[in-house]
From TrEMBL:
Pfam families: NAPRTase. GO terms for biological process: NAD+ biosynthetic process. Belongs to the NAPRTase family. SUPFAM superfamilies: Nicotinate/Quinolinate PRTase C-terminal domain-like. Gene3D superfamilies: Aldolase class I. The keyword Oxidoreductase does not apply. This is Nicotinamide phosphoribosyltransferase. One of its GO terms (molecular function) is nicotinamide phosphoribosyltransferase activity. It is an enzyme of class 2 (transferase).
């Protein structure tokens, strides 16, 4: 069961490590270093992964279970080594891990951590959990991507003279798309290091000092409750104002996106202005880029750009954000008027 995946730290290794204590000619002292050899990265998550693992006290029960698991693979577990950890080190692995501070930019090929044993004869433990330590690649990769997106926003902000609100224009909808809750934790908290808009509600607990926020938003399931989707949009505007909030996203493709843009948008924009609300229209299928351009043109024609925006969340990644921005700018679309999810 996944809930017990960390119960026995001795199992959190590669099977070939079981043979190394007897294959080596010396285990007195060892040292290892870790680095990313391909690209620079923001180091993130490494310290937490290491700390959580090494804080587990190893017991004789762990050793017995590891022996049984090794036998299932036709291998022999190095019980003597770990029984020494139990009896001589009170169950805590005698290794030290030193790393650069979390959040450090690490150029390609630069070691970001080193591991060494602190008691003679336990050199094999230096690399026993190396695979676990390397799992920090995922949070570090997420933090690096978020950092690059932030730098992109800052460059655009400087180029066009946008105010600080421009830095909110890339929004995370990542929670439901992750492979696991652990991935969602790492990716969501990494996002919050550099970016501000997020629907990853759980990260508010884990990053209490981050400057983050979200907005009210319709989903297709909400719009489908109404026989008249225009009535749904009007209610969304009214309820957002009544709640004391100032922005709401309206998904427009539940029935007919073009009808929303061409027929409903002018009236909805005026209603939003009267109530002190900004509406953000979200095309979610079809040619979403063209729909975004159409929204901008209709809003501009009716002098509603101060209360109407666009968010595109369909099939987006960093490269797509930049491609779409370039095409929107060609059409005279101000990036400040669009959001990306």
């Amino acid at each position: 069961m996944i809930k017990s995946i960390r119960n026995n730290p001795l199992l959190l290794t590669d099977s070939y490590n079981l043979s190394h204590p007897r294959l080596k000619c010396n285990m007195d002292w060892e040292v290892s270093h870790l680095y990313n050899r391909r690209e620079g990265m923001i180091l993130y998550g490494f310290r937490e992964i290491v700390g959580d693992l090494l804080s587990i006290q190893i017991t004789e029960t762990h050793v017995t279970e590891a022996e049984q698991c090794a036998a299932m693979q036709g291998l022999r577990f190095p019980s003597e080594l770990f029984l020494r950890v139990v009896r001589e080190c009170n169950g805590y692995a005698p290794i030290a891990v030193e790393s650069l501070p979390e959040g450090t930019w690490c150029p390609a090929g630069t070691p970001f951590a080193q591991v060494f044993n602190t008691v003679e004869g336990f050199g094999e433990l230096v690399t026993w959990w190396e695979g676990m330590f390397m799992h920090a690649y995922f949070p570090s990769g997420c933090a690096t991507e978020a950092f690059h997106l932030r730098r992109y926003l800052e460059a655009k902000q400087a180029e066009h003279g946008y105010d600080e609100s421009f830095l909110w224009r890339i929004h995370s909808f990542g929670f439901r798309g992750h492979r696991s809750l652990e991935d969602a934790y790492w990716a969501g908290t990494a996002w919050n290091l550099s970016l501000q808009g997020t629907d990853d509600f759980h990260t508010t607990l884990h990053t209490p000092h981050a400057v983050i926020g979200s907005i009210a938003a319709l989903a297709h399931k909400v719009t489908q409750q109404f026989d008249d989707e225009k009535e749904c949009f009007e209610r969304a505007i009214d309820e957002t104002a009544a709640a004391g909030e100032r922005m709401v996203a309206l998904v427009i493709d539940t029935y007919d996106a073009n009808r929303v843009i061409q027929q409903y948008l002018p009236e909805l924009g005026l209603r939003a202005r009267e109530r002190g609300v900004r509406i953000v229209l979200r095309p979610d299928s079809g040619d979403v880029l063209q729909q975004a351009i159409d929204i901008y043109e209709v809003a501009k024609a009716h002098e509603l750009l101060d209360v109407v925006g666009v968010i595109i969340g369909e099939g987006m990644n960093a490269a797509q954000v930049k491609r779409y921005d370039a095409k929107l700018e060609e059409k005279g679309f101000r990036c400040h008027s669009s959001l990306t999810g």
